[in-house]
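User: I'm curious whether this sequence folds into something compact or stays loose and floppy. Could you predict its structure so I can see for myself?
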Amino acid sequence: MTDQLTRRQLLERAAIGGAAITFPGILAACGGGGSDAREGTTSVERKLAKTLRMSNWTLYIDVKGKRHPTLEQFEKKTGVHVKYTEDIDGNASFFGKIQPQLQRGQSVDRDIIVMTDNSRYPSLLIDKGWVEKLDKSAIPNMKNLIAQQRHPAWDEDRDYSLPWQSGITGIGYNAKLTDPVKSIDDLLTDPKLKGKVGVLDDYSGTLTLVMLANGDDPGKVTDASFDRAIKKLQKASDSGQIRRFYGNSYKEDFAKGDLAATIAWSGDVAQLQFSNKNLQWDVPTEGGEIWTDNMFIPKGGNVYTASTFMNFVYDPKVAAQIEAYIQYICPVDGAKAAMLKLDPSLSKNRLIFPTKQMLDNVTSLDAKAFNNEKYLTTWNNLISA
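Assistant: Here's the prediction. I'll summarize afterward.
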């Protein structure tokens, strides 16, 4: 399946860094999780490893020069060295690297990996039994997880995952070129915007927004609701309303003024606003899409060490420190208050700390739609025409 949404599309602010991923070794018996055949449970060795190995997306943690201050704090606090690798460039491409090892019961040489929930891979990892259960006794700060993130359909009780960061797919508009664009219907039909509208080629985000505009439930996609969404987009494309379907390059045209309005990711606009205050963003009146990058412990990872790290980054003060640099949506309750002391202006930024109303007005696409080959083919034909 083609990976429609990648973190490079969300965080391409600098050149890709980090070393190439390697996958040595067979699953170690003393790794984080070992299967107890008698009770059908997972035993956890409650001893910190010498090294925590983590894979993450590029530019997704605080940086000072060549240092990562929060990682250094964790190392000082625990004595655990962190081998932090920025080697995830897309959900599909990264999964393709680790799948062969996981299928053979081999270690992928990582204790934590991060994958996005508006793709098929989080649920697939859990269903295949390729990730370890969290040691929740080592994560008392899990109580700080915001309410809206506690019970995703693919991991109902957060037994296998914790959010790293989130973003919302909504509408961006240039206040110098247009009045506020608040609805998807306005975006796709207002003649004043003709030829100046951008639409993401992101399968999940764009479909979710258009289905909501049609009054359909993106969480329960049917052939009829899918067809209605495709027809609406096709009509807007054929009429010339849509300039084109964009990948990451929409940011350039939006910043230059070639687009008056566009479907956009919240974190991108937060970054663009540094150089252009005319660029605004909002959740459409009909609702938006929320996506989350989640931490998982792959089979063979050290459960106790990984869980201890998760507990560390769920300390509101640590979470605020990370947010001050990356500025995506924080999943940690209490981080906003901590940010007030660290950087008062950022504590008021609703693209980092959305209001309850914003969070109550977002949803996610039906997970089954990610595996429907007919839908995927139709979508690819639309955006490539």
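Summary: Residues 7-160+297-314 form a domain with the D-Maltodextrin-Binding Protein; domain 2 fold (CATH 3.40.190.10). Residues 1-41 have pLDDT under 50 and may be disordered.
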